[in-house]
Specification:
Elements (H helix, E strand, L loop, with lengths): L1 H9 L2 H15 L6 E2 L2 H7 L8 E5 L2 E7 L5 E7 L6 H12 L9 E15 L5 E15 L19 H21 L2 E2 L8 E3 L5 E3 L6 E2 L7 E2 L12 H6 L1 E2 L1 H17 L12 H25 L5 H18 L10 H15 L13 H7 L8 E5 L5 E5 L4 E5 L1
This protein binds adenosine-5'-triphosphate and magnesium ion (MG).
Length: 397
């Protein structure tokens, strides 16, 4: 409301027409990202007021910008001290081209200088008027906070199917970044995965990413940014940048989504035998814990869920392998998840030669007599049975 009042009260006719024009474009979901005047951004954030703060990170503060229509955008004001022009330009140009449901959409940016009095030198009590570069990024507002606020230990918080959808969403977003945009994110962590109102995961913050050409698959950087705990060992120690660095971070995130913890078996300082043993122990523990939960809740799709947990742990543990060559690519991961999803789709998997042995065959396949079956069709002597418990269709002649 405050924003609306300011809007009406403070702007001259010319400015308000210009702002209205900008608003119109911002309300158009198909519009391309644009340069937004600082004055406009000040207006929609109540002069970057404390009440408008959405959060704060290593690069600056994120504000809520409210348009006249009520639509909200996120305005990330980068810290003056840390602003590196080249980095800013990089982030802007990377973000501009991106459109994917699992990527936070970029709506505009601002690069203006403002005059400010700054102390000269610090503590002297004398002030000079200095040109301060102001850099802002404007992004689609994602309403449901970052992923870290949603994942706790595996026995509370989100249900398994929601966690699985989040894992798939992150993988799809990363697939888009790696395969279509040739971008390495380099700061993948739950704080940089935002959740929308229907819990779709959206990857944000490409400030530390580097773009690759078609032929170039790997590069080195002297200026390492990113977040400890999620950073791949080769990036941490040698500054080696590749898609596999993101895959490592993805592994840590998936483990955190499944277990609620960031712990994973350490590959670095162990014998191969010990590694194999601790990996197995880790997977068994996680799987056992989820299985118990599925059993206690009498889930209908228990077998499918168990397979999903198993596959996700296997993938995640491969992702955090200290040897980057042993980590899968995002393409491999998507393929595996797709294969897994095929199992969950009711399928016609069996054809029987006659009706006599039908019941016996169904029992031998585990189609329970006591749990709900649905006969979905019996044309021309065919019986099509859908077992809700294991979500499989049996096609019986
Ligand atoms: N597009 C957005 N929509 C809604 N809230 C956002 C958006 N972008 C950021 N935020 C909020 O602002 C907070 C701070 O984000 P920011 O990216 O500045 O910091 P961070 O992710 O914690 O750390 P880093 O600086 O390493 O990225 C986020 O945790 C989130 O709550
Ligand atoms: Mg961030």
């Amino acid at each position: 409301m405050d924003t609306l009042r300011r809007w009406v009260g403070s702007s001259s006719q010319g400015i308000s027409n210009k702002f209205a024009e900008l608003e119109k474009k911002l309300n158009d979901t198909n519009a391309t990202p644009m340069v937004l005047p600082l004055e406009f951004l000040k207006n929609i954030t109540c002069d970057f007021s404390r009440e408008s703060v959405l959060g704060e990170g290593g690069y600056g503060v994120v504000y809520k910008g409210v348009l006249q229509s009520g639509k909200i955008i996120a305005v990330k004001k980068l810290n003056g001290i840390h602003v590196d022009d080249r980095m800013f330009q990089n982030e802007v140009s990377y973000l501009m081209a991106m459109k994917h449901q699992n990527i936070v959409k970029f709506v505009g940016y601002c690069a203006e200088s403002i005059s400010e009095f700054v102390e000269k030198p610090s503590g002297s009590g004398k002030y000079i008027l200095a040109e301060m570069p102001t850099r802002l990024l404007c992004l689609e507002y994602v309403s449901n906070q970052s992923l870290d606020k949603h994942i706790s230990d595996e026995s509370s918080g989100l249900e398994w199917n929601m966690r699985y959808e989040i894992i798939k969403g992150i993988c799809n977003g990363l697939h888009f970044l790696h395969e279509q945009c040739h971008i390495v994110h380099l700061d993948l962590k739950p704080q940089n995965i935002l959740m929308d109102s229907v819990m779709t995961a959206k990857i944000t913050d490409f400030g530390v990413s580097r773009i690759f050409g078609e032929q170039q698959s790997r590069t080195f950087t002297a200026n390492r940014v990113g977040t400890l705990g999620f950073m791949a060992p080769e990036y941490l120690t040698r500054g080696e940048v590749s898609n596999k660095a993101d895959i490592f971070s993805l592994g840590v995130i998936v483990i955190e989504i499944i277990t609620g913890r960031r712990n994973y078996p350490d590959f670095m300082h162990d014998t191969p035998y010990n590694i194999a043993t601790s990996l197995k122990q880790f997977s068994d523990e996680v799987l056992g814990s989820w299985r118990n939960k599925f059993l206690s809740r009498k889930y209908k799709c228990m077998e499918i869920y168990t397979q999903q947990v198993k596959q996700c742990i296997t993938i995640a543990l491969k992702c955090v392998d200290s040897s980057m060559d042993k980590r899968p690519t995002i393409k491999d991961i998507i393929q595996r998840l797709n294969d897994l999803d095929q199992l969950a789709i009711p399928q016609l998997i069996h054809t029987f030669p006659n009706q006599k042995g039908c019941e016996q065959r169904m029992v031998s396949l585990g189609v329970s007599r006591t749990k709900p079956w649905i006969i979905t069709g019996h044309a021309f002597g065919y019986i099509d049975i859908f077992d809700y418990d294991i979500q499989v269709n049996y096609f019986i002649l």
